[in-house]
Write a structure and sequence with these properties.
The chain has 87 residues and is α+β, with helices and mostly antiparallel strands. The protein has one domain: ACT domain (Alpha-Beta Plaits), CATH 3.30.70.260. 28% of the residues lie in helices and 33% in strands. The protein is built from two helices and four strands, in the order E-H-E-E-H-E. It has a four-stranded antiparallel β-sheet with strand order 2-3-1-4, with helices on one face. The protein starts with 10 loop residues before the first strand and ends with a strand.
């Protein structure tokens, strides 16, 4: 039985990833996403630093083709040691 989802695939799906500000944070997020979505366009990233500058959020618009693919991306990001939160 297929899992129910309100998302219609394929689609562009925004994922916000937050972590401590580091030089390699954005590159790490891109690398993790590209493992599951090789065609991910890194130029579609929006970055925002926290007011104190300790944290950074990276919003990635990813073209996903299925719920399992999206779930794999979320699992890979949330389990990465540099990532604090994924929305």
């Amino acid at each position: 039985m297929a899992e129910e989802t309100l998302i219609e695939f394929p689609c562009d799906f925004p994922i916000k990833v937050m972590g401590e500000t580091r030089d390699d944070f954005t590159e790490t997020v891109i690398a993790v996403i590209q493992l599951h979505s090789p065609d991910f366009d890194a130029s579609r990233i929006e970055m925002r630093a926290s007011s104190g500058g300790k944290y950074i959020s990276v919003t990635c618009n990813i073209f996903v083709t299925s719920k399992p693919q999206l779930d794999d991306i979320y699992r890979a990001l949330t389990s990465h040691p540099l990532v604090k939160v994924v929305l």
